[in-house]
Amino acid sequence: MPKPRFAVLGAGSIGCHLGGHLVAAGYDVAFVGRPGAMGVLRERGLTLSTSVRPPVHLTPDRLVLATGPEAAAGADYVLVTVKSAGTEAAAQDLAPHLAPGAVVVSFQNGLHNPATLRAALPGHTVLAGMVPYNVVQSEPGTVHQGMPGRLMTEPDDMLFAAFREAGLAIEVRTDMSEVQHAKLLLNLNNAINALSGLPLRDQLGQRAYRRCLALCQREALAAYRAAGVAPARLGPTAPAVTPYVLGLPDALFRRVAAASLRIDAHARSSMWEDLQRGRRTEIDSLQGEIVALATAHGRGAPANERLLTLVHEAESAPRTWTGPQLYAELRAAR
Ligand SMILES: NC(=O)C1=CN([C@@H]2O[C@H](COP(=O)(O)OP(=O)(O)OC[C@H]3O[C@@H](n4cnc5c(N)ncnc54)[C@H](OP(=O)(O)O)[C@@H]3O)[C@@H](O)[C@H]2O)C=CC1
Ligand SMILES: CC(C)(CO)C(=O)C(=O)O
């Protein structure tokens, strides 16, 4: 059977990580990205790095690089890896070029990207996917995976086989909505990490920042309960218990949550990268979703609402917050 062909729509950290692994395993991948980013790859090639394995370098001649969605025309699978605010536009761009029968897979954070893609691409199968680990562009042309983890998607045998062959750990799930709600609980830390200005490991090592996350997660769990949503359990700790664990003193937290601190020194939230580059963040699809859900059920989510405002402010006027400053700010909002 011929190998399926892929396109990556939104060739940034996640798109280059997924697409790069597929290229390394011999799959055809068309990378669709911004002219600047594609120029870097055209010049330097793409390096896939982790702190546990030697890096893999793909020379420029192995990369099919494009800046327009027409490059996705030959793909059997289109992996959508733009930030949430760009999904609608990316889907509209893609619609006239998508091959009949092509499957679209959203590997994005947030709750609504698969639905946005389905609405814009009628007649195509759109699968929800989830990336549990961090990938940063540690230097131009290098995407670095900073922690272990298994990708998740809705069932598709050919996709699953290709990812496995490419060395991308992947798990098939039939409860992706619950998975996405669980991932959103983790992504409530993106804003806290971005405002801390610290690598994830250092930020999560500090109780005051973890308490900020616990406040956000408690509000989210209350909103989920009101909405009848039961988030999936993605790690050793059940979602309902996580806020208690986050509030433990540092030494105890390090022992109880050792697995969640298996993060290398480079890892930062994807929102930190956005603030660094002066780009719009995904805050409306993260804290914004919790505020909207809480409001729809007659509840407040003041800590999430305050973070929403602080991140919007940081988009135009960057500032960093110490853990105690941020915790005091979020508590004062309640
Ligand atoms: N990075 C991470 O560690 C993780 C990220 N995620 C999620 O994965 C998704 C992707 O994140 P990430 O890879 O970090 O994002 P990036 O910003 O690194 O990559 C997306 C790239 O796509 C470009 N882009 C946007 N729209 C288009 C378009 N229509 N055509 C071509 N290129 C386009 C963006 O350019 P521009 O900026 O100019 O719009 C950007 O360069 C997000 O939903 C994120 O939350 C999930 C888990 C971990
Ligand atoms: C992996 C994680 C939770 C944190 O880096 C993330 O999803 C992100 O940065 O967007």
From TrEMBL:
Catalytic activity, EC: 1.1.1.169
SUPFAM superfamilies (UniProt xref): 6-phosphogluconate dehydrogenase C-terminal domain-like (SSF48179), NAD(P)-binding Rossmann-fold domains (SSF51735)
Single GO molecular function: NADP binding
Top-level enzyme category: oxidoreductase
Top-rank lineage group of the source organism: Bacteria
Biological or metabolic pathway of the protein: Cofactor biosynthesis; (R)-pantothenate biosynthesis; (R)-pantoate from 3-methyl-2-oxobutanoate: step 2/2
A Pfam family per the record: ApbA_C
UniProt entry keywords in alphabetical sequence: NADP, Oxidoreductase, Pantothenate biosynthesis
Biological process annotations from GO: pantothenate biosynthetic process
Cellular component terms per the entry's GO annotation: cytoplasm
Every Ketopantoate reductase C-terminal domain range: 176-314
Reactions that this protein is recorded to catalyse: (R)-pantoate + NADP(+) = 2-dehydropantoate + NADPH + H(+)
Ketopantoate reductase N-terminal domain ranges (all copies): 7-151
Role noted for this protein: Catalyzes the NADPH-dependent reduction of ketopantoate into pantoic acid.
Family: Belongs to the ketopantoate reductase family.
Xref: NCBIfam families: apbA_panE, PRK08229.1
Name of the molecule in the record: 2-dehydropantoate 2-reductase
Organism: Streptomyces monashensis
